[in-house]
Amino acid sequence: MTLTIRAGDVLHLNRAASVQFVAAPIMLRLIRVREDLVTYHGWVWLEGYELDQDGDATRKREIFVQWAGLRLMSTSASTSTSTSTSTSTSTSTSTSRSYRDAVYGR
């Protein structure tokens, strides 16, 4: 079964996704899946923003990864901007905590 991902989803990428993340796993906020590019079976091109420890975008990336290695940390619905300040803050804190837990094992 293939994971369904969409713009705004936050993904944890490590060695299971690609050898480029063996030493330094990253979190990626997805912009889009590059369906216009032909790939090998089980692989996909993704475009998104690499996130820092606080969940802030640090740079735009286009990466080639294995579908089976993608780990969904939060969906676009849970990371969307809210009109409530308290909800927006808790979402940011939750994303940051998930990032630290996934990457640093805390």
Keyphrases for this structure?
106 residues; alpha+beta; five-stranded antiparallel β-sheet
SSE topology:
Layout: E1 10-13, E2 26-33, E3 43-51, E4 57-66, E5 71-74, H1 76-79, H2 85-104
Antiparallel strand pairs: 1-2, 1-5, 2-3, 3-4
Region (Disordered): 75-106
Biased composition (Low complexity): 75-97
State the helix count: 2
Average pLDDT: 81
> What count of domains describes the coordinates?
1
Number of strands: 5
Biggest β-sheet description: 5 strands, antiparallel
Q: Order of helices and strands, N to C?
A: EEEEEHH
The dominant shape is globular
Strand content: 25-35%
Task: Tell me the quaternary state.
Answer: single chain
Q: In angstroms, what separates the terminal alpha carbons?
A: 30 Å
Measured as a percent range, the helix fraction is 10-25%
Biased composition (Low complexity): 75-97
Region (Disordered): 75-106
How does this structure look, described?
The protein is 23% helix and 33% strand. The protein is of the alpha+beta class and 106 residues long. A five-stranded antiparallel sheet has the order 4-3-2-1-5. A hairpin with a 5-residue loop joins β3 (43-51) and β4. The longest helix has 20 residues, at 85-104. The chain starts with 9 loop residues before the first strand and ends with a helix. The relative contact order is 0.25. Mean pLDDT is 81; it is low at 79-93.
